[in-house]
Design brief:
Structural class: alpha/beta
Shape: elongated
Largest sheet: 6 strands, mixed
Helix content: 10-25%
Low-confidence stretches: none
Radius of gyration: 23 Å
Number of domains: 1
Strand content: 35-45%
CATH superfamily: Hypothetical protein apc22750. Chain B
Length: 147
């Protein structure tokens, strides 16, 4: 009976540990290799003369864009099941469609996917994890005085 009680306590502790530390997830890279326009993660870009331009100071806001990507991984996110995502075409298309010249305030938000909350399945190393990535930015037109 003592061994049974010890086994129950042991498996309870292990179960709580796994419940709190289950780590299904995903990995991926966002690549901007061939973007045809200036892209900045700050609210500024430089003109041809090296002067700093910002919205309402040489730049006109033309709208924003949102790109959504989903990444997959397994073995506690050690193995990538998704490749690197080159989002240059989506950015080029958005900038062209809005008749803009550049992108400022480029940022991203990562949110866990639905498979990451499936305890106790996340304890299994083969369970696929997901990550949703939202890439956002402000498209701007360089004013005539800013060129």
């Amino acid at each position: 009976m003592k061994n049974l009680a010890k086994a129950i306590v042991f498996f309870t502790i292990i179960s709580i540990f796994f419940l709190l530390t289950a780590c299904a997830g995903a990995r991926g890279s966002i690549v901007l290799k061939d973007v045809n326009h200036p892209v900045s993660m700050s609210p500024y870009i430089y003109d041809k003369n090296g002067q700093v331009l910002s919205i309402n100071k040489g730049l006109t806001y033309n709208g924003g864009f949102l790109i959504e990507k989903t990444y997959y991984g397994t073995f506690y996110s050690l193995i990538k099941l998704s490749g690197d995502d080159d989002v240059n075409q989506q950015i080029n298309d958005a900038v062209k469609a809005s008749n803009s010249d550049a992108v400022v305030n480029l940022h991203y938000v990562v949110d866990q996917g639905g498979t990451n909350g499936c305890c106790p399945l996340t304890w299994l190393p083969i369970w696929p994890g997901t990550a949703k990535v939202f890439i956002m930015g402000d498209m701007v037109k360089i004013s005539k005085g800013g060129k």
